[in-house]
Amino acid sequence: MDYKASGVDIDAGNETVRRIRSLARSTFTSGVLSDIGAFGGLFRLEPGQFREPVLVSSADGVGTKLKVAFLANRHDTVGADLVNHCVNDILVQGAEPLFFLDYLATGRLSPDVAESIIGGMAAACRENGCALLGGETAEMPGFYNEGEYDLAGFIVGVVDRERLIAGRSITVGDVLVGVPSSGLHTNGYSLARRVVFDHLQLKVSSYVPELSRTVGEALLEPHRSYLPFIRPLLGAGRIKGMAHITGGGITENLPRVLPHGTGAMIDTSAWEVPPIFRWLQRSGSIPVDDMRRTFNMGIGLIIVARSDQAEALLGELAARGGRDARVIGEVVAGEPPSVSYV
Fold this sequence. Notes:
43% of the residues are buried. The protein has helices spanning 10-25, 65-72, 78-91, 111-128, 189-199, 215-219, 227-230, 249-253, 275-284, 288-294, 310-319, and strands at residues 53-61, 96-106, 131-139, 149-160, 175-180, 207-208, 213-214, 241-244, 262-266, 299-305, 326-333, 339-341. It starts with 9 loop residues before the first helix and ends with a strand. The strands form 3 sheets. A 6-stranded mixed sheet has the order 8-10-5-11-9-12. Strands 1-4-2-3 form a 4-stranded mixed sheet, covered by helices on one side. A two-stranded antiparallel ribbon has the order 6-7. α1 runs parallel beside α4 (111-128) and α3 runs parallel beside α4. It folds into 2 domains: 10-163, CATH 3.30.1330.10; 175-341, PurM-like C-terminal domain (Phosphoribosyl-aminoimidazole Synthetase, Chain A, domain 2, Alpha-Beta Complex), CATH 3.90.650.10. It is of the alpha+beta class. It is globular and about 70 Å long.
């Protein structure tokens, strides 16, 4: 017996590393001091760039959106999903990304699939100015179903302590600016898959007129990165707090940034819920409260700002490509922090 006969192909692992080395190198910034293959990734902060640097980190996965990728046999979007999700998670505290690490685990390693996943990841890292510093590819026969894998990401960013966005100055009367999502992002797929594939019995190739594309295309729409819109505003002092609307929707995520004594009132008429959410709700007869606690409902980021600065903030967002941002509510009195809808 040998290792390959037991299900682990070291040669496939080496081929995967060979293919992804150039992809990772294409993301390297001036702070990277190591190469792919080292036991640890090395990153150097530029001296004098920050008065009191604070490192901000986060880890996340893509969830059961991967099941859709398996069905569609399309693997170039989930890597970008992972990077953009992690970038947004640290962005809401004012941090810009420094480097990213990934973990890819599968039963039988396919260099082609791995290259496609890491290729999407590297592209997103380049777009966000984030170095793909390293990662781990694990081949675990018997642990995953044939053709399936799991994916996780770990990000580290930095912000000057005086520019941390913690939401402590949020007060009653502040406005809530919503920036639209690009779709489901990376949350709610267990419910979406049950509606689409179990209840409606559709295939990823099924065309849905209401969505103007196939089910697979709609469900694999990449998670949007908000860094291009927000980065230029981080030092302007207009942003009091931000919430990345992920699992739990607005209902669960917005209270995470609200101080005690405050709550949020959301005007649901302020934006049009995208077709993908309306279609899922109607097709699955999903109660509206469940929709709001499962999906982002078309709003992927919420910014809290003073009411007298809202117009200027919207103008700055529009100038940087965020023309679809709008005021969707306000901060009200409440204890504990919670969200109400009108």
